[in-house]
Specification:
This protein is mainly α. The chain is built from 10 helices and no strands. Helix 8 (210-226) runs antiparallel to helix 9 (230-245). The protein is elongated.
């Protein structure tokens, strides 16, 4: 997929710390959306009964409906309004939820195998422990939902920002192998995003994978050089060379070598920042 030139340039040129503020994507945005969500009337009981009886209620107003563990296999809920509905543990295998509004809906533990979620609004949607095997999803469709503990989800179904941000969260918890995996997939989707190359390099350094980390820092240096940022490029190249010159560095990785390296050789640029920064990328990617 070819990205718009402006988007590619934005993702690749994120430098630190001067642009760190623009990259911070905090939970406050979701909380703000929740606070400003327009109030909706509770679902009409007759519509709920219709759905349970016929398994079809396209476009229906089902806000705040209690559908816990409901059997809605192959149900037609296209364009349904399901904001804040409780569908925890519901069976929605093969259901048509295309263009449905599932904002702040609970789908925790629900089975959505093969469900059509294309065009669905999943702002703040709880998908913890939900089974999304074979589900049809838009790229970036899950970016603003709680998808991290969902099952059956292919990383290739997620957009760049969701993948990078997941890597940040894993790294902040010290789960560097998983962080490396997320950053790697983010890089495959947006190879020009220097922030992800740096973040993966740090995650690899913390695991003692100094040669691979050096390669990541080295390529990030190339990206910055292409953007005309000679200073950042030089500092990243220095970090790469430091790892290559010290083959014993891997033994120190468990003691936070990545943090030490970034806080030492690259102190002026504070390149630990990528592990505290989340990528703010337009959802259209």
């Amino acid at each position: 997929m070819t990205l718009p030139r402006q988007t590619r340039r934005q993702a690749a040129s994120q430098t630190f710390p001067t642009r760190l503020g623009a990259l911070l994507l905090t939970a406050s945005s979701l909380l703000g959306a929740w606070a400003w969500a327009a109030p909706a009337q509770a679902a009409d009981p007759s519509l709920v009964l219709r759905l349970l009886d016929r398994h079809s209620c396209p476009g229906c107003a089902l806000q705040d409906a209690d559908l816990v563990q409901a059997n809605l296999q192959d149900a037609n809920l296209k364009q349904a309004k399901l904001q804040r509905a409780n569908l925890s543990g519901a069976r929605l295998d093969g259901a048509n939820l295309s263009a449905a509004d599932l904002s702040f809906t609970s789908l925790a533990g629900a089975s959505l195998r093969g469900a059509d979620l294309r065009g669905a609004l999943l702002l703040g949607t709880d998908l913890r422990e939900a089974d999304l095997s074979g589900a049809l999803l838009d790229r970036q469709g899950l970016a603003q939902s709680h998808w991290r503990q969902a099952r059956g989800l292919e990383l290739s179904q997620l957009g760049y920002a969701a993948l990078h941000n997941a890597g940040v969260e894993e790294a902040n918890q010290g789960r560097y192998p998983k962080a490396e995996q997320f950053f790697g997939e983010a890089i495959r989707q947006l190879p020009e995003a220097a922030i992800s190359w740096i973040a993966r390099g740090i995650a690899r350094t913390e695991q003692g994978k100094t040669t691979l980390a050096a390669q990541d820092f080295g390529y990030a240096s190339v990206l910055y050089e292409r953007m005309g940022d000679a200073i950042a490029a030089a500092e990243l190249k220095k970090a790469s060379q430091l790892l290559l010159d010290d083959p014993k560095a891997a033994k120190k990785a468990g003691n936070g070598l990545g943090s030490q390296l970034m806080g030492g050789a690259l102190a002026a640029f504070q390149f630990l920042a990528p592990l505290a920064a989340k990528a703010l990328v337009p959802l259209g990617i």
